[in-house]
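Now for one specimen:
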Amino acid sequence: MYRCSAKGGGEEGEASELTEEERERSFANKSVAQRLAIVSAGPLMNLILPFLILPISFMAGVEMPTYLDQPACIGYVVEGSNAAEAGFEADDCVVGVNLEKIESWNSANKAFVGQAGNALIFDVMRDGTKQQLSIPSDNDSLEGMQALGLLPRQEAVIGGLADDMPAAKAGIVAGDKILRIADHEISSWYDLRKVIQIVKDQTVPVLIDRSGDSLTVELTPQQREEGGAYLIGIAPQQESTEVTYGLLESFRQGAKRTWELIELTVIFVQNFYRQCLGQEYRRSDYRCSGCRTGGPDRSSAILSVLAFISIQLGILNLLPIPILDGGHILFYSIELIIRRPLSFRAREISQQIGMAMLLMLMVLAFYNDIIRLWG
């Protein structure tokens, strides 16, 4: 029969009395080093797992947007963004960030990882002349170039159409390139929205290029709701390239990508706690730039998302917050130093504080999402 005992099993006698055999196998009866190893195993496996599954993703083939490997030349600057305030213009090409050489959109996004919390000094080529533009430290650089308001060049080529909308009704098909709407020349995808709002609900001619042949159709933009934007029901064509690696290169690329994700997550946690400690709160959601490696039906995409989640779980679980594995690691580390376990009361209070911290974290996360959606 089991009963409560001040001298029973468990640490400091807070568990039920155990038999001798059970006591030998119990967690509380293990050495501090063994307990540390046990509680560390879960988070460490979370961090090791991506090193094993991402190479499979790279061997299966990853589909990446073509523009990521192209020079970081700007197609459009979002109004009111960090980049617009810094003076960026369409057709600027970024060749450096904080003295680091930039050769592509991908290398630009990676350069931001080590610059979190710092002002950004851009070396930009404009009309053959190099100049510098700066963005203050309060920015969204961790989310990539596009979060700063810098969008890649994008031709006005149709990738998809909505049924029962003006473009589809006019006979426009996927692959068509829009050259002109009424008297307005269209040089990129970003011109379309502005021009469509200008013509409003007028019936206008649209000049398109279809496989090298020019033809004109007529359409009338429409509003989905009163007071809303005028639409014609089109989506851009996203060019992508499928890349497949051999066995050794897959492991190299997988390790490289895993380390990038770990670095991104650690920097995010640092910035999050910096906000919690009273620094300026910025309304931005966290997105992993370039995490997606293909469509949702691809096994490589599923593996990539799984790796990303595993890394976040591993790092967050290592935080020194009581009730998390990191809290237990902290307790056992203290025990190694002072040569005795913390009192049951001290651990109980710490667990309560840890629960309160996690609840506050959840409230802050919900608040962030609500403000982002409705603010």
About this structure: Residues 1-15, 278-297 have pLDDT under 50 and may be disordered. The longest strand covers residues 120-126. The chain has ten helices and 16 strands.
